[in-house]
């Protein structure tokens, strides 16, 4: 049984991941709900979380805000929403979390399909998701003691389809339970530096 931290555990995807990994000891964290509260945009908050929970065997992030909007009207401040939250939030979780990760442990981040399949109004999401995937490739070659890092790139979730379908014409949504299997593969498998696509 592994001790697994799931950040964003109460979101649609996070709940499915928690269900798929329920045979392990789970620590469910979030910005507003969870056994532990954490703000991934605040390094002090991330440090405090790990000081409270101690060493873990796996870290999973299933969270991150992005900005969707037309490029012609987008401000740098709006673009920074995704950079500061989904990108740097997950990067900081990794940078700090690696020091609390047991030998042979794993880190799993979350990107998304628009890293490779752009959509209208999705330039911020494409940039952030692509950067996360590049970060994981680079980080994987430096982690030692058998520790691994991967990123899951899910399609839009079926459970969120009503909210996001206008952004994804012609896409086929995937069930959150199917996307969650990629997190199981990352935690319990052997791969590292990979983008695990669930399209």
UniProtKB/TrEMBL annotation:
InterPro entries: NAD(P)-bd_dom_sf, SDR_DHRS6-like, SDR_fam. It comes from the Bacteria. It comes from Chromobacterium aquaticum. CDD domains: Lin1944_like_SDR_c. Belongs to the short-chain dehydrogenases/reductases (SDR) family. Pfam families: adh_short_C2. This is Short chain dehydrogenase. Keywords: Oxidoreductase. The keyword Oxidoreductase applies. The keyword Oxidoreductase applies.
């Amino acid at each position: 049984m592994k001790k697994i931290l799931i950040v964003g555990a109460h979101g649609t995807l996070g709940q499915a991941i928690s269900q798929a990994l329920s045979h392990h000891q789970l620590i469910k964290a979030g910005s507003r709900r969870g056994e532990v509260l954490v703000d991934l945009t605040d390094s002090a908050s991330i440090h405090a979380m790990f000081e409270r929970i101690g060493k873990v065997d796996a870290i999973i992030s299933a969270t991150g805000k992005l900005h969707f909007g037309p490029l012609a009207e987008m401000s740098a401040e709006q673009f920074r929403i995704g950079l500061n939250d989904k990108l740097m939030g997950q990067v900081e979780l990794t940078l700090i979390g690696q020091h609390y990760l047991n030998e042979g442990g794993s880190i799993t981040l979350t990107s998304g399909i628009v890293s490779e399949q752009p959509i209208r109004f999705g330039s911020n999401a494409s940039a952030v998701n692509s950067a996360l995937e590049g970060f994981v490739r680079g980080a994987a070659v430096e982690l030692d003691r058998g520790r691994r890092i991967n990123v899951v790139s899910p399609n839009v979730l079926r459970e969120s389809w009503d909210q996001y379908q206008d952004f994804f014409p012609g896409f086929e949504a995937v069930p959150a339970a199917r996307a969650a299997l990629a997190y199981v593969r990352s935690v319990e498998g052997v791969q590292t530096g990979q983008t695990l696509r669930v399209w």
